[in-house]
Write a structure and sequence with these properties.
Helix content: 25-40%
Structural class: alpha/beta
Largest sheet: 6 strands, mixed
Number of strands: 21
Shape: elongated
Strand order of the largest sheet: 18-17-14-19-20-21
Number of domains: 3
CATH architecture of the largest domain: 3-Layer(aba) Sandwich
CATH class of the largest domain: Alpha Beta
Number of helices: 12
CATH topology of the largest domain: Rossmann fold
């Protein structure tokens, strides 16, 4: 039964035998054609048997192997590799159907290719996971057909594998390079600013290309006869906490990811840079109840601990309880720290309702409120309109955006740092704010 289960008929088979059936119908009116059609039918049947012999004369006709990263990155393009080897002495055509994880919701995946005898080929395709969790790849199905093309032989490589999807490690590594490469002038969308420097003097050193010319020590330069600059070092061992709002306001989707997923990716990026800057990184999450609490430390496994906690985070349907956050900031966080609060406010009323609590938190710590600009509404507000209804809708959209901008000013009025950002620019803007506050000596 296994032999017959792996035999599949191709379109060429049905077309040829369909034509034969039509010719037999025509031969009813033209009997002279009947012997010719019988001979053609016999030849086709022989070709089918020859095709079966060609495809099944080798037990390991095709060898295939799937290679995946050990960890997939959330929201990023991850590459999957298929290694193929034709063990036979004939050229074959392949249809490859990989059973992708159900989270991808891709049911039409198919790769069609030709493979010469004894040829080795590596195929690469991309997937973009939009949910954290375990992704299970099923069987790798390869349908082999010879040059005759009447029959396909199915070969299954049934070693299923499970690959976890974690917060974006790809984004973390990319932004780490941009944040620490001081002399890079690469063009790109994401730009990391480096504003100023701290005031902890370290040494006087020779000027090299890329040093800030404002740090030139003219007295030392005149004595040495060459340019000398003052070198400063960043203040170290500062506590930086990423605070995640897990309530329903963070469930809004953008480009397939929820706002909370963007915040989770950014929290991993920020934590990595904080640790690289010799500061201490921590994590808090809350909604109607307190969630994860990781004390800000700079241990060797701190980043792995934060990444594992972010991997397990899930949105909740309730409202955020900022009183819980205030008590946690008093009881759990020892010493003044930088708190990066990732949340969202859709109206001025929503902000004013929690503003007294935010002000109290800001007296204990340096609070940065990070919330989101609605890029879809902004895009709509910039479109051209042709009728009265369009003008009315666009006016509402512009009022909404103006209200968002007013929230930033309202927070700054009470001494609270604020970032209004599009979801795709969240990580860069958060890094810039952290580096700015560190350079100004506010942490």
């Amino acid at each position: 039964m296994k032999f017959w289960d792996n035999i599949f008929l191709t379109n060429r088979f049905f077309i040829c035998f369909g034509i034969i059936a039509g010719l037999f119908a025509v031969s009813f009116f033209m009997p002279i054609l009947f012997p010719v059609i019988q001979a053609i039918l016999l030849m086709l049947v022989i070709l089918v048997f020859v095709d079966i012999l060609l495809l099944f004369n080798n037990k390991e006709f095709i060898h295939a192997n799937r290679r995946t990263p050990k960890i997939l990155s959330l929201g990023e393009t991850n590459k999957i590799h298929l290694d193929l080897l034709n063990n036979s002495t004939q050229n074959v055509s392949l249809e490859i159907i990989d059973e992708l994880p159900e989270q991808l919701q891709k049911r039409d995946f198919k790769i069609v290719m030709n493979l010469k005898n004894k040829q080795t080929e590596t195929i690469t395709y991309d997937i973009r996971p939009l949910q954290r969790g375990e992704y299970i790849f099923g069987a790798l199905n390869i349908y082999i057909s010879s040059e005759i093309g009447f029959i396909q032989r199915r070969t299954q490589f049934t070693d299923s594998m499970s690959v976890p999807v974690y917060p974006s490690i790809i984004q973390m590594k990319q932004l780490e390079l941009k944040a620490f490469d001081r002399v890079t002038n690469q063009k790109g969308i994401k730009k990391i600013r480096r504003l100023g420097h701290s005031y902890e003097f370290e040494q006087i050193k020779s000027y090299v290309r890329g040093d800030d010319y404002r740090s030139i020590n003219w007295k030392a330069s005149s004595r040495r006869g060459t340019l000398m600059v003052n070198a400063y070092q960043d203040e170290r061992a500062q506590q930086v906490y990423c605070v995640l709002d897990k309530s329903r306001v963070m469930r809004m989707p953008f480009n397939g990811l929820s706002l909370m997923d963007y915040a989770i990716n950014t929290s991993l990026v920020i934590s990595n840079i904080v640790l690289q800057k010799d500061d201490r990184a921590g994590l808090l999450s809350f909604s109607d109840v307190m969630g994860t609490t990781i004390k800000a430390e700079r241990k060797a496994n701190q980043l792995n601990k934060i990444m594992a906690a972010l991997y397990r985070e899930k949105e909740r349907a309730g409202e955020a309880n900022y009183e819980l956050l205030y008590h946690a900031s008093r009881k759990l966080i020892k010493g003044r720290s930088l708190l990066l609060l990732f949340t969202n406010f859709e109206s001025t009323y929503a902000l004013e309702r929690v503003l007294p609590v935010l002000r109290k938190i800001n007296t204990l710590h340096l609070l940065v409120v990070v919330f989101f600009d609605n890029s879809e509404i902004r895009k709509f507000s910039e479109q051209e309109v042709e009728d009265t209804e369009g003008v009315y809708m666009q006016t509402i959209a512009q009022n909404y955006l103006a209200e968002k901008a007013a929230m930033v000013q309202q927070l700054k009025q009470f001494g609270i740092q604020a970032i209004l950002t599009r979801p795709e620019e969240l990580a860069v803007n958060s890094i810039n704010k952290y580096l700015e506050l560190k350079a100004r000596g506010l942490i």
